[in-house]
Amino acid sequence: MTVRVLIVDDSGFYRRRLVEIFNSDPMIEVVGTANNGFEAIQQVPRTKPDVVTMDIEMPVMDGITAVRKIMEKNPVPILMFSTLTKEGATATLDAMEAGAVDFIPKKFDDISNDRDAVTKLLCLRVKSLKRSAVTKTKPTLLQAKPSISGIKTPQSINKSPVKPVVTDRMGSTTGFPKKNSCKLVAIGTSTGGPVALQKILTALPANFPFPIIMIQHMPGTFTPAFSERLDKLCKISVKEAANNDELKPGLALLAPGGKQMMLQKLGTKTVVKIISGKADQTYKPCVDITFASASKLYPGSMLAVVLTGMGADGRDGSRIVKEAGSAVWAQDEASCVVYGMPASVVNAGYADRVIALESVSRDLQKV
Question: 151: exposed, middle or buried (C-beta count within 10 Å: 0-12, 13-18, 19+)?
Fold first, then answer.
């Protein structure tokens, strides 16, 4: 089925380039272009796109405002084009809080020097988002610190309004770690992850009893801004992980973008070890790598959670976690933006529980 795309950008050259890229794929149809956010909100109900690509900085109406208005009245998956700068990171996170589901570098050289590779990735990303139907967003009332941007957090982006669903494999409570055995929570995610992580972490109490490590596919310029934002919103502490950071209860450490996060023993402490990502590694950070490292230090005593995201990162890591005797949870399809990573875990038979996003925070507090 053809994916209908609306392109929103104030640069005529960039609009033409995107039209050329998308028209190269017979499964994608460009149904319109817009010069600014105001034109975009007018065109969405008229052209009925499956996906909107959105620039951030535009005259008349910026991309963040346009995202918010589109998601309030005519919700559709929106892919943001972002600059890989600190300011770009903040603006992109604002756009995702407003309802955008994913982002990609606007400077194509930041994706790849191979033109064909850029074309393939952009088309793949748009086609994957077509399958992530969305609902109207409404602000949530967070009993926590205010956001940096001052924009209230929207409800998670779901395929349809769903009740919290938790399915234990074999119809039992085996999906929970053995009582009093859990010592670490490890969470891996990609597309849709920033909103999902925010929803989970903001609902945890300040005295949450376990350390948390998080692997979110995100550029190195974005992870500092994202961790700072989460820290301001959450009752627990959140920071971008650095070498020798100690794992502590009530502290969530976010893997830095462009690098790999490992765990190691330093005397009696368990600490983070950050290493450079290799050129041949697809994901930096990589869920599989961190899960595997954690499972060696926490055999039978960690909980791995795989959330929304494209691809299969987390599948092999979940296998290692299971082989070491620990539990694995996977987000359910209905509450995912993209049911890729969790599906790979479920289909391989590694998920002890298939759980709705709305249930994760509540059930983490039962572990």
Answer: middle
Give the residue ranges of DSSP H helices in 188-277: 193-201, 223-233
3-state SS string for 178-190: CCCCCCEEEEEEC
Q: Amino acid letter at 15?
A: R
Average pLDDT over residues 334-358: 96
139 domain residue, yes or no: no
Which pTM was predicted?
0.85
Q: Which of 190, 227, 295, 335 is catalytic?
A: 190
- Rounded distance between C-alpha atoms, residue 95 and residue 79, angstroms: 10
Distance of CA 333 to the CA centre of its chain: 14
Q: Are residues 102 and 192 in the same domain?
A: no
State pLDDT tens for residues 137-189. 543 333 334 333 332 333 333 333 334 445 654 333 457 776 668 999 999 99
Place of tokens 């600059």: 83
Q: Any catalytic annotation for residue 168?
A: no
Comparison of pLDDT for 24 and 169, the residue scoring more: 24
Name the catalytic one among 10, 62, 82, 217. 217
* Annotation marks residue 110 as catalytic: no
User: Is 10 assigned a catalytic role?
Assistant: no
Out of 62, 313, 316, 352, the active site residue is 313
CB 252 within 8 A of CB 147: no
- Does the residue 340 lie in any domain? yes
Task: Please report whether residue 157 resides in a domain.
Answer: no
Q: Are residues 215 and 104 in the same domain?
A: no
Residues 118 and 187 both lie in one domain: no
The alpha carbon of 114 is separated from its chain's Cα centroid by a whole number of angstroms, namely 25
Q: What is the residue whose two structure tokens read 């007018």? A: 42
Cβ–Cβ contacts within 10 Å for residue 282, how many?
A: 10
Q: Residue 117 sits in which domain range?
A: 3-130
Three-state SS string across 8-31, please?
Answer: ECCCHHHHHHHHHHHHCCCCEEEE
Under a CB-based contact definition with an 8 Å cutoff, are residues 87 and 56 in contact? no
Per the structure, the count of domains in the chain is: 2
Strand partners, 187: 214, 305
For tokens 């929970």, the residue is: 176
